[in-house]
Q: What sequence folds into this?
C-alpha cells in the first residue's frame, strides 16, 4: 500500500512516499520514513486527525509528524489581549 509521511516547518517541508505491506500501522511508516531526528511520543496525525502509533493505515493515507507547540494557544491569546 502507498502512504506518504510528511513533516513541516514554517517555510519548508519534507515528504517521503512509501510502499508498505498491507496491515501496516503508523509506527511502521514512521520507522520506514528515514527521518532521523524523531522523538518517541512525538505527536502524529493521519489526514489531520491525531493518532497513536498502532493505528492501522489504508492506501493513500498521509501520516503527518507534528511539531510540539511552542506556546499554549490559550496563553498566546491572553498575551495578545493584554497588549
A:
Amino acid at each position: 500500500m502507498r502512504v506518504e509521511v510528511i513533516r513541516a516547518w514554517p517555510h519548508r517541508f519534507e515528504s517521503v512516499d512509501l510502499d508498505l505491506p498491507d496491515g501496516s500501522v503508523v509506527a511502521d511508516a514512521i520507522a520506514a520514513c528515514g527521518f532521523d531526528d524523531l522523538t518517541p511520543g512525538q505527536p502524529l496525525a493521519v489526514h489531520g486527525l491525531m493518532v497513536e502509533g498502532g493505528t492501522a493505515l489504508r492506501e493513500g493515507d498521509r501520516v503527518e509528524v507534528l511539531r510540539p507547540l511552542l506556546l499554549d494557544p490559550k496563553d498566546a491569546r491572553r498575551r495578545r489581549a493584554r497588549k
